[in-house]
Design goal:
The chain has one helix at 60-67, and strands at residues 72-73, 82-87, 90-95, 98-103. The protein is mainly β and 121 residues long. A hairpin with an 8-residue loop joins strand 1 (72-73) and strand 2. The chain contains one helix and four strands. The radius of gyration is 23 Å and the shape is elongated. The chain starts with 59 loop residues before the first helix and ends in an 18-residue tail after the last strand.
């Protein structure tokens, strides 16, 4: 069902490629709609929910205000300077004064564009 209504099916199993007036619809796209149950913020196979982490772009001052002081801080490295702050369960990486990435070691994000990755061998 698409938007609560049954779609007309063509021989290939997809909805018809025609508009109401019978002309072809050149802008139509095809796809599969997955009905996913709402759940906790977990990664498949993970025993615990992913901790809440600051969003990309948040300032160091705002991170301190909302998440408290980190357990440890690294010195800036490189140019631009990258700094790491360690919190229980995750690490924050800053470029200058802004969050660049939040890393949760036990909760790996799925690999995007895996087909584009090349083997080092």
């Amino acid at each position: 069902m698409i938007n609560g209504a049954a779609a007309a099916q063509s021989n290939n199993g997809y909805a018809n490629d025609t508009m109401a007036d019978g002309s072809a619809d050149p802008t139509q796209t095809r796809g599969t709609v997955l009905d996913m149950p709402a759940g906790e913020n977990t990664v498949q196979g993970a025993a615990t929910p992913r901790p809440s982490t600051p969003p990309r772009g948040m300032t160091k001052a705002r991170v301190r205000q909302q998440y408290g002081e980190p357990q440890s801080k690294s010195q800036p490295v490189g140019n631009p300077p990258i700094t790491r702050w360690d919190y229980p369960g995750y690490r924050l990486y800053f470029e200058y004064d802004h969050v660049l990435h939040a890393v949760v070691p036990e909760h790996f994000e799925p690999v995007a564009h895996g087909d584009e990755l090349q083997s080092a061998n």
